[in-house]
Specification:
- It is a single chain.
- This protein is mainly α and 439 residues long.
- It folds into two domains: 1-213, MFS general substrate transporter like domains (Growth Hormone, Chain: A), CATH 1.20.1250; 217-439, Up-down Bundle (Growth Hormone, Chain: A), CATH 1.20.1250.20.
- It contains 17 helices and no strands.
- It has helices at 2-39, 48-76, 78-96, 102-116, 119-130, 136-161, 167-195, 201-213, 224-232, 235-251, 253-265, 269-276, 278-296, 299-321, 330-364, 368-394, 399-438.
- Helix 10 packs antiparallel against helix 17.
- The N and C termini lie far apart (49 Å).
């Protein structure tokens, strides 16, 4: 009976995290979906360049949050920071819907994405405290898949609402749903914590035991500063940082897709938002299947698998870039564009999520959280620059072609860098195996 009760409580915790993170995704997604409607609002002084600046300031909030919210979650507790983040994102999303000044848009979206960035580190803290290490993998797998589902669901939901309400109403509804969730979740977490108080000590002890047993790791006794020096002296750190940064730029295309489709095919804002859900849908399927594939292939074969998917991403962007040079008919071109966007999302997701996660745990050891934060900081810095530059480029006459050209070059850099990184990882694993055999 006690065991069944614990399983039920664990399910409740996971569902609570999935619902809460979906609310953070809702507050993040609403800006991208509302973008086309905001651009045509005569009461605003927005163009594609200034909209890109809004996204850039949001990414700056993400970068800042990644470097600070993890520390807050460790000190204050994962559930407290998680719930506060949802509430803060709800409030800033509501205020965003009342604004008309570009400067105010910049500030509020920065705060919204700063709050949203607390989601992943606070959930990591919740999982660390309330789940045994033997269940961490499956819990993270479920949450990662759920995050992709919520991305698709929130995009479709908000796009559907945009058919019947204004873009401002979209922000108010998203904020109300998120705020309601922030009010309900504390009760669930409070009840759960009381019930699993006996379990909360065990995972921490288990983690410490695992760390104690990893005495052969070069960072086993290193402090934070020594770990940072160790990372920056490694070519693998710089390779994965450049690769993930390039992939993060490619992922930023997702926020521009509704405007790209709206301006390229003269779609209504709601239609453009619905069509843009092809990207997160491709990501969802790739994340769901990618983990199973990686578990079954060797590191050598992984080079070919990841390299092939990234080559597909380049071909998708090239097709989008030169699609208008041949007359296929508007309807067929739109369908083909949506298909290419789906394939593009599918192609870049495995390389973006999997290699860094695996590398960070093995290379970072007890400092793997610090390593993830550093890599993410590089990634969001690259994405932030692209938001500003990409929006300015797309705002020019024929700018979307140049916009796609930037993505093509970035995709080529990402492909080369990730292939080199995976090859170096393969060589490192071979060297380790040879050393163990000789010993």
């Amino acid at each position: 009976m006690g065991k069944a009760l614990n399983v039920g409580l664990e399910v409740r915790i996971v569902i609570s995290m999935c619902v809460g993170y979906a609310m953070l995704m809702l507050c993040r997604t609403v800006v991208g979906v509302a973008g086309p409607a905001m651009l045509i609002d005569p009461n605003l002084q927005l163009d594609t360049a200034s909209f890109g600046a809004i996204l850039g300031w949001g990414t700056a909030g993400n970068l800042t949050g990644k470097l600070t919210n993890g520390v807050l979650a460790d000190k204050l507790g994962g559930s407290k920071v998680f719930i506060f983040a949802i509430g803060a994102a709800a409030v800033t999303t509501f205020v965003f819907g009342t604004l008309s000044s570009n400067t105010a848009f910049f500030a509020l979206y920065f705060l919204t994405i700063f709050a949203k960035s607390a989601g992943w580190p606070s959930m990591a803290n919740i999982i660390r405290v309330w789940f045994s290490p033997s269940k961490h993998g499956r819990v993270w797998g479920f949450i990662a898949t759920s995050s992709r589902i919520s991305s698709v669901a929130t995009t479709v939901l908000l796009s559907s609402l945009l058919l019947v309400i204004s873009w401002r109403g979209l922000f108010f509804i998203a904020a109300a749903i998120a705020l309601l969730c922030a009010i309900i979740l504390p009760r669930l977490f409070k009840n759960t914590k009381n019930d699993v108080s006996d379990l909360s000590e065990k995972p921490v002890q288990n983690i410490e035991a695992i760390l104690d047993n990893s005495a052969n790791h070069p960072l086993h006794k290193a402090d934070t500063f020594a770990a940072i020096l160790f990372f920056i002296k490694s070519r693998r750190f710089w390779l994965i940082s450049l690769g993930v940064s390039s992939l993060a730029v490619l992922f930023e295309f997702q926020v521009f897709i509704p405007i790209y489709l709206s301006q390229t095919f003269d779609l209504a804002p709601a239609q453009a938002g619905m069509a843009s859900s092809a990207f997160p849908l491709g990501c969802l399927i790739a994340v769901f299947t990618g983990g199973f594939i990686v578990d079954k292939v060797s590191k050598k074969k992984l080079i070919y698998v990841m390299g092939s998917t990234l080559v597909v991403a380049i071909l998708c962007l090239l097709s989008l870039r030169y699609l208008g040079t041949v007359e296929f008919g508007a309807g067929f071109e739109l369908a083909l564009t949506i298909g290419l966007i789906f394939a593009f999302g599918f192609a870049i997701s495995p390389a973006y999520y999997i290699p860094m996660s695996v590398f960070s745990i093995s290379f970072g050891g007890r400092h793997c959280g610090l390593l993830v934060g550093l890599i993410d900081a590089f990634a969001y810095f690259g994405a932030m620059i692209f938001d500003f530059v990409g929006g300015a480029v797309a705002n020019k006459e024929g700018g979307w072609q140049d916009f796609l050209s930037i993505l093509i070059v970035t995709s080529i850099i990402a492909t080369i860098t990730m292939i080199v990184f995976l090859y170096v990882e393969y060589q490192s694993s071979k060297s380790t195996q040879n050393s163990l055999q000789n010993a």
